[in-house]
Amino acid sequence: MESTILSCSSCGTTAEDQPRVYPEWVDGNDNVAIFSREGYMIARGILTIDEVETAKLQISGVVKQWFEKYDATGEEGDDWEEVANRLPELQGKPKDITGIEAELTIRKLFRMCVHFEYFATLCRHPNIVRIINQLLGPNLKLVQSMALLKPPGSGEKKW
């Protein structure tokens, strides 16, 4: 199937030249229909800047705990296997990286709400629950909580 490239006759730009417009949550809009059509939405302002900064510090703390255990034992540890996922090429290498370089080797943190009370509380934040209830209904269960960590300059990951 061929795709048609739309162009503007007055300015000559094509649809490919236009920035992507992402579906955003707007109180009063038919957000459920938009979510159903697109499969996702951006919801800005759910957390305050302070709440976002606290969450970032908590994530850094989890990573630091992981590395402290790794530094103490020399092993990644089965009990942390479900928490942190490092870049495969770095697993089992000597402890020669520290600080932010070490933190940037972690790509995923799994089951955050199971292992860390801060994230269990955050997932029940009233603004998050309000929007989720409107989109999916009440009485939901959280099945997975994960932080995907993407370092600066790592490029776009195609899903």
So how many helices? 7
* Class based on secondary structure composition and strand pairing: mainly alpha
Approximately what portion of the residues adopt beta-strand conformation?
5-15%
Rg: 21 Å
Strand order of the largest sheet: 1-2-3
Number of strands: 3
List the helices and strands and how they pair.
Blueprint: H1 31-38, H2 49-73, H3 78-81, E1 84-86, H4 99-103, E2 106-110, H5 112-115, H6 117-122, H7 126-136, E3 146-148
Antiparallel strand pairs: 1-2, 2-3
Summary, kept brief:
This protein has helices at 31-38, 49-73, 78-81, 99-103, 112-115, 117-122, 126-136, and strands spanning 84-86, 106-110, 146-148. The chain is mainly α and 159 residues long.
Describe the protein's architecture and organization.
By secondary structure, this protein is mostly helical. It is built from 7 helices and 3 strands; from the N terminus they run H-H-H-E-H-E-H-H-H-E. Strands 1-2-3 form a 3-stranded antiparallel sheet, covered by helices on one side. The longest helix is centred in the middle third of the chain and has 25 residues. The radius of gyration is 21 Å and the shape is globular. It starts with 30 loop residues before the first helix and ends in an 11-residue tail after the last strand. The N terminus is likely disordered.
